Structures are given as structure tokens and as C-alpha cells.
Amino acid sequence: MYQYFRNVTPGSHEYNEFLELVKGDEEGDLLKNMAFTKNGAHLVCLLFANGTAKDRKQLLKPYKDTFLMMSGDPYGYVIILTTMDVIDDTKMTAKAIFPEILGDTDEQAAESLMAAASNPHARATLLYLLEGATKSVFPGPLQEGLEILKEVHEIRKTTSKKDGEVRAKELVAAMSPQLIAGVKAAAEVLVNDSFGCQLATEIMFSAIGDKTAALEAIAATAAGNPEVEAGVTKTLEDTATETPPHVSRTPHGGRLIKSLIAGGKFDKASGSVVKVDPPLGFADILYPLVEEHVVAWATGPSSFVILNMLESEDFGDKKKLQATLKKNKAALEKAAGGAGGDGKKKGAENGKKKGGAAAGGEDGWEPGQQAAFGEATVKTCTRRGGYEVKERT
């Protein structure tokens, strides 16, 4: 069927007959089966792209109760992304798809996010509207899907009326409440997974609506003493309970917290962070929960979290933080000294072996080498409220 479609001209008699044949399957079994095969899914995407508004509505209907399964399928997920890209009636798209892939309750939304953290296709389904066609959404194995979408985008120039950015914004607005609710409910699980952190970060940056409760849930995972070791403990009932490492002790957890404090994505072109609007204000949410253990944060692998707090323009407790750091200057200098020497050399060697900054997280250090702001040294001075941060070399 795919090869036949490739040899007919959209709008021709043969094309119309073919389309009617596909739509004529009253049970929708043909369309459902095609969604889970490589060429079949590609064909369905092309039918959506070339179809009229009426055709698209008829093609969408048979997938009722199948979207959740499709979202995690290596081929079916691209059909969902195509519908988001070509159907102008965003209310219809949102009503048909989002309740199935995100559920109707906070718990169902949380389950969807946790499942997406371990499934790249489900993750792309959720992140595509928020992040676009980036490498993080479409890593190597998903490049074929991206090529299909590029083809769809060319076709929709003549078959869809609504501007692509407008369509995407309308769909993001529709899915945002459940995404935000899901982060709030699943924060404790998401922060312990690198892809879960990716989901949480992107949702906090790009979703639309009040994110305060979700940010508070993420901040709550950072509470407690970072120096408590992870391990397995036993309860009075003699059941084993695994204690995950503190969020500040994992590269992905540290990046999540640091990014939320920065309040936006780093733009390579301008060399600065483009903050979201309205501001997240995450530093003010987080600080009361970590204030007691600020020195442990500042001398640990996620020390750049503290640096970002100091550099945050809208952080209300900056002076209090500066006073605490100044009071514990000796501990900071000791940790900074421990991060140099052989540690610095080893970090540089690992960076060369593994490919620069990607080696030890986005900062280019192995965990534990960022003590006391890693290569950034905190020095007493009169400006910036008592501290100056030297750029790493």
C-alpha cells in the first residue's frame, strides 16, 4: 500500500479511490494495524498531511483508545506528532489525544511521565510540542521519525491553513495542566532519573500555567542532608527499603536544580540564559529547604547550584546565603583545594576521552570535582556582597 501511494498523485482519481478505501474500513482495523508497522505508519502520516480537514477527522476517529499504545511505539508515535502538526482544529486534536496519553487525574498524568522517562518514543510524544525537533527529543534511533515530519511539514504548506507556531501554542496550552500536575505528583521519581529530569525541566520551562506546586514538589526532593549516603535500610518489619542518593549527588539531579534556578535555557548565540516569562522564582522556593545544608551543597558535586543562587537577579535571600558562605570560608577553600591538582588533571583527561563537556555532565567535570564551585573559586571581596566568582579556565 505504501509503494502504491508513492506512485499516485495527491488529488488524482487513483489517490481519491485509495483514500476512500482506507477510510471505508468501518471498524478501523486497517488504520490501527498500519500504525504499528514502519511503512504503514509512514503512509498514515502522509494521508494526514495530504488530507482535507474532513479527511483528517475521519482518519483520526479509528485511533480512539489506541493513542496511549501508539505514543510508546517506534512507529505509531510519529502519527500522533503528525496530527499535532497538520490538524488545524486543535480543540479536536487535544480532546482526542491528550486525555488518553496523559489521563484525567494527577495520578494518571504522573504515571504517564514516569513511563515516558523510560520510553524515548513516549518521551518524544510529550516533549515535541514543548521543545521542538531538537536532538534531545529525537536522538539517533528516532531520526527516521524526524525525517517523516520534515516531509509532512513540506506538504502541510499547501494543505493546512493555521500557522505552525500558533497551532503548537494552542496544543501546549491544552496539555499543560496535566503535564504540570504530573510533575507535581511524580517529582520524587522523576528527579532520580536522567530522562525524568529532562521531562521535568522542559515542562517547567515551556508549559503554560501556574507551576508553583510542581516547583515546590521538586524543591522538596532536595531537602535533607546531601551527605547522607544512599543504600538499603531495613524496617521493623524486616523489609528492605532502598534509599536513592540525594538529588545533589547525581549529575542529572544537580543539573535539574541548577537549570530551574537559572530560570531558562542557555542560548548559545547570545551566550546567556533566556529566562521564561513569568519567572520561575525557584531559588526562593528552594532555599528554605536547603538553608541548613548550604555548605554541604557548596562543597559537593552540585556546588554550581549555590553559584547560580548567588548570580540569580531575583533571589530574595542572597545576602543571607552570602553571609553563610563567608562564615564557612575555610570549608569552602578546603574543598576548592581538594578539587584541584590531580582531580583537575583527571577531569581534563576524562573530558578529552569522552568528548569535552559531555564527559562529566554538562559542565565537563566528573561528579565530585565541582567542590566549592568546581573550578570557580569563592574569594572574599567588597563587591557582589562579599564574594567574587572567578571564571573557570
From TrEMBL:
GO terms for molecular function: mRNA binding. Keywords: RNA-binding. One of its GO terms (cellular component) is nucleolus. The keyword Signal does not apply. The keyword RNA-binding applies. Gene3D superfamilies: Leucine-rich Repeat Variant. Residues 119-269 form the CPL domain. Residues 342-352 have a biased composition (Basic and acidic residues). Pfam families: CPL (PF08144). Residues 334-377 are annotated as: Disordered. Transmembrane segments: none annotated. GO terms for biological process: regulation of translation. This is CPL domain-containing protein.
